[in-house]
Amino acid sequence: MPFLIETFDKPDRQALRLEVRPPHLAYLDANANLLLACGAKLSDDGATASGGIYLVDLESREEAERFIQADPFHQAKLFAEVHIVRWRQAYLNRQNTL
């Protein structure tokens, strides 16, 4: 059952984001089997990240909460907010999956 996790960085935390990025990417690699899609939300010029979107294939909200809480970005207290919602996949890779 897919969940969408949207994160919002605290203001002025770009240096922390860059510092913690390598262990964050290692965490994502270690959990790639759970990721339907994942990536940073960027400023219009693409220079600055301000949070992220994770589409994860997990069985429950509790599993989604545990997943994001184990992310090094979360553990470094980068996020001001985290939103978790169930998601219904309708299209993936430009294909209808319903």
Outline of the structure:
It is built from 3 helices and 6 strands, in the order βαββααβββ. It is an alpha+beta fold and 98 residues long. The model has no long low-confidence stretch (mean pLDDT 95).
Give the termini distance in whole angstroms. 14 Å
Task: Kindly provide the radius of gyration, computed on alpha-carbon positions and rounded to a whole number of angstroms.
Answer: 14 Å
* Sheet with the most strands: spatial strand order: 2-3-1-4
The percentage helix is 25-40%
Shape label = globular
Number of helices: 3
CATH architecture: 2-Layer Sandwich
Give the helix/strand class: alpha+beta
**What is the CATH level 1 assignment?**
Alpha Beta
Number of strands: 6
SSE arrangement, N to C = EHEEHHEEE
Question: Can you tell me the CATH topology?
Answer: Alpha-Beta Plaits
What does the model show?
- It comes from Vreelandella olivaria.
- Belongs to the YciI family.
- InterPro entries: Dimeric_a/b-barrel, Sec-metab_biosynth-assoc, YCII.
- The protein is α+β, with helices and mostly antiparallel strands and 98 residues long.
- The protein has one domain: Alpha-Beta Plaits (2-Layer Sandwich), CATH 3.30.70.
- It is built from 3 helices and 6 strands; from the N terminus they run βαββααβββ.
- The strands form 2 sheets. A 4-stranded antiparallel β-sheet has the order 2-3-1-4, with helices on one face. It has a two-stranded antiparallel sheet with strand order 5-6.
- Strand 5 and strand 6 (95-96) form a beta hairpin.
